[in-house]
Amino acid sequence: MQLKQSVLFFKIAALTSAIVIIFVSWFLYYEVSRSARLTAQLTQLQTALQRTMDQEEHILIRAQKDDVSAIPQLKYSYQDSFSNLLNSMANEEALLPLLLQLDELSKAYFGKLDELIRLHEQLGYDENAGIYGEFRRSAHALQDRISGKAMPQLEIAILELRRREKDFLLRADLSYLQQHEQIVMHAEQLIKDNALSEEISNLLKRYDAGFASYVAILRKLGLHDGEGVRAELFTEKQKLRSQFEIVSIRTQAVTQELKESIILYGLILIVLMNIAVLILLNYQNSKVTRHILAINKVLVKVAKLEDFSLRVNIDGNDEIAQIAHQLDDLLAFIETLLARLSAAQQRLIEEAKMASLGNMVSGFAHELNTPLGVAITSQSHLKEQVATLKSQLELGKLQRQTLTTLITEAEAALYLLENNLHRTASLVDDFKLVAVNREFEEKSTFNLKHLVKNVFDCYQSELNQEDYAIELEIPENLTLISYPSVFSQVVGYSINNCIKHAKIDGQKLNIVVSTVLINDYIHFYFKDDGAGIDKELLPAIFEPFVTSKRFSGGTGLGLSIVYNLVTQKLKGEIKMQSPAHGGACLHIILTGTEFNFTEE
């Protein structure tokens, strides 16, 4: 199998794995959403049932008509929630029987709740409704009829009868019922003994029958929590809650099993595909490793030895062999190209040297143009004056005044000629120092502070105290083993730069020369607080003929000479810094200079 076919297989395997992962992820998301929806519907159903049970508790406690009227709406809410849940679980064979069983238990509970409501409706929701209202009205009528009979014993019996009635209703104690029956019998006997009207006897019987019916319904409801309809209703609630818990646990188990199955099958499929890919990779690796190692071996040798004559020399026609053949062709091409480049490089080096020399000569010629031009002009003028003098002398017309004038002009021309020729000679000497070709004296040991001070003394006439302040922060016992004349030139050119470029009219210039020992190297600083250096000039400050005062006598060779002296003769490093607020600092690191601190 070629690499192209292998790569295609790998792409198909990767794409299939991605599709499987996407499918499994989507199915998991669907199942998680479905599980969340089922859980929410179960919670909604349980909430509806719990609200019904809470309302039932209110009915058992106070039996108000408003509490009873809310039951139909709560039953409807429960049934609606149950229908939604049933629709969601229609395809769940494992959960559907449990849900139907839950429905049967809920129907039994609601049946008992309806029975409870019917019994409370029979009793009456207030003192004037239902059986309670009937026997209460009978009692009031009986009390009204006997109030004018002047029968205190019967009135007391009726009052005791009502008291026992209230005691029973308040405490639900059957002993009060027995006392109530005895008092009823006593009242009947008093009515009979006093030959009272049949109406009073009937009122007493109606009251007694109504109270007995009321008590019978109470007993059916249950005088206590563990009796009657109340106990049956509590039992149905417990069954319903237990079934709810079973349905909830089973629903979570079924959804969890389904999600685990999806993950398991997805992982099995991905593992099988990865195994197939690994087998193919191992086959391809064993097939191409030898060729790749051969190519790598040649490349390492080429990189290390820079020998482009090496070749891979692999046989075959697969992609790796084709790469090897192309690599051999490339190495052959590079070998030929390098030979051609080497020849071209030599030509370019010579051309670069000539171009650099041309630039330097052009700048040097520009600097020489002014003094030489003035010298030539002076020489021409002097030549004309000599010719005039000779002509008048031959004609015998030379006068004293004319001679005096000619001599004065000749002297002026000679003065200009001498000064400009001296300036030209100085430029030539400075230009020769840029290349640092001349031999300096041998190395010697000297005190750096004393040398710097001596150089400043040479410029004492120009560095007057009113315009300049000099400060030397160099240890007294610091000695260098180097070239003192080189250091003298470096300091001298630096002083010249301060005088020509740093001094601001009307402002005193402070010059500080200091040394610091850092990492076993002497750092030499020449700082001033003058005009500073333009940021455009700073990057090229050490190049020849770079100056900001070309038309004021500056040549632009001073720092170039310093740079060459430091880097070539002293083997050190040099930097120029000029902060935005003004001033400049020449920083020289004497990496190639020996030093010591002598004992004082």
TrEMBL record:
Q: Which locations, inside or outside the cell, does it occupy?
A: Membrane
User: Which Pfam families does this UniProt record tie to the protein?
Assistant: HATPase_c (PF02518)
Q: Which residue ranges does the record assign to the HAMP domain?
A: 286-339
Domain Histidine kinase residue range list: 363-594
**EC annotation from Swiss-Prot or TrEMBL:** 2.7.13.3
Cited SUPFAM superfamilies: ATPase domain of HSP90 chaperone/DNA topoisomerase II/histidine kinase, Homodimeric domain of signal transducing histidine kinase
Q: What is this protein called?
A: histidine kinase
